[in-house]
């Protein structure tokens, strides 16, 4: 129980209990429902945006907005989520990923709202979901998609959280690291399957991790390779294996102009 993922999950459970004491779940449920008919908040199709890019023969890039990470420390300072979002949108990103975890990634709800309001791209709330409360919260803040990390959840939780997200019109990125997790992910409905090249327990990164799982994945799934994509050779390596959707953070966060860095890497 001492690895980083378990530590984050323990913190997250405490945070959710505190949040519930300040905003009740029923209030959040109402806000989440109301968001679905609010012109500014109603969902933008996350998977659709990725598929559109790929249909044009381009990369489907989920461009991440994160100030820091437990493995890399501070990545960007000063940090203006609205400007980063605009830059990504101008330079061909399909979607945004915004870290909302405060303690480990220096994120927050406001960053997601600012990023989303600054452009027309769909946004995934990047956080550690451990309770349905956070899924209502995600929709109430305007998220178009959520992340479900298979290693953090039971099969029953995965199914419950996925179906709740879908009821709230959100897409779901199901994240796996290894072969056993993949088999559990394949029990779910979402077509969007993220393969994390970073082991969330040890922080080790290996791009080969994506390739090793490919042969076990049905072709109906849209595979997103996540983490450790830093250079053109990494992108080429994925393309050689017919992987066309990417989740990239660090490489862009360290660049002076994140959108230009995206364009240079992918287009
Ligand atoms: O910064 P990178 O190496 O490009 O990685 C981005 C993204 O894959 C990574 O932030 C991530 C993937 N899955 C996560 C789960 C939680 C927090 C973060 C992540």
Automatic annotation (TrEMBL):
Q: Which residues form the signal peptide?
A: none
What are the recorded Gene Ontology BP terms?
L-tryptophan biosynthetic process
Question: Which Gene3D superfamilies does the UniProt entry name for this protein?
Answer: Aldolase class I
Q: Which CDD domains match?
A: IGPS (cd00331)
Q: Which domain of life is it from?
A: Bacteria
Lyase as a keyword? yes
Pathway listed? Amino-acid biosynthesis; L-tryptophan biosynthesis; L-tryptophan from chorismate: step 4/5
On whether Nuclease is a keyword of this UniProt record, the answer is no
Task: Give the HAMAP family listed for this entry.
Answer: IGPS_B (MF_00134_B)
Q: Which family does it belong to?
A: Belongs to the TrpC family.
Q: Which PANTHER family match?
A: INDOLE-3-GLYCEROL-PHOSPHATE SYNTHASE, TRYPTOPHAN BIOSYNTHESIS PROTEIN
Q: What is this protein called?
A: Indole-3-glycerol phosphate synthase
State the encoding gene.
Answer: trpC
């Amino acid at each position: 129980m001492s690895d980083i993922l378990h530590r984050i999950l323990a913190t997250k459970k405490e945070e959710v209990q505190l949040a519930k004491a300040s905003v009740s779940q029923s209030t959040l449920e109402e806000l989440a429902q109301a968001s679905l008919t609010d012109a500014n908040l109603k969902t933008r199709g996350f998977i659709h945006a990725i598929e559109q890019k790929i249909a044009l023969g381009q990369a489907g890039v989920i461009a991440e907005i994160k100030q820091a990470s437990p493995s890399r420390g501070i990545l960007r300072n000063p940090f203006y989520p609205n400007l980063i979002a605009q830059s990504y949108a101008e330079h061909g990103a399909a979607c945004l990923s915004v870290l909302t975890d405060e303690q480990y990634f220096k994120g927050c709800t406001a960053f997601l709202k600012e990023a989303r309001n600054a452009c027309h791209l769909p946004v995934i709330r990047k956080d550690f979901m451990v309770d349905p409360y956070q899924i209502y919260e995600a929709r109430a803040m305007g998220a178009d998609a959520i992340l479900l990390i298979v290693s953090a959840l039971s099969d029953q939780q995965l199914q419950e959280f996925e179906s709740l997200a879908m009821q709230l019109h959100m897409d779901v990125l199901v994240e796996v690291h290894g072969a056993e997790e993949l088999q559990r992910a394949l029990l779910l409905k979402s077509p969007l399957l993220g393969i994390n090249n970073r082991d969330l327990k040890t922080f080790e990164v290996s791009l080969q991790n994506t390739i090793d799982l490919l042969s076990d994945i049905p072709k109906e799934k849209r595979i997103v390779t996540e983490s450790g994509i830093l250079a053109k050779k990494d992108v080429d390596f994925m393309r050689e294996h017919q992987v066309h959707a990417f989740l990239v953070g660090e490489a862009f966060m360290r660049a002076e102009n994140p959108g230009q860095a995206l364009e240079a890497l992918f287009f």
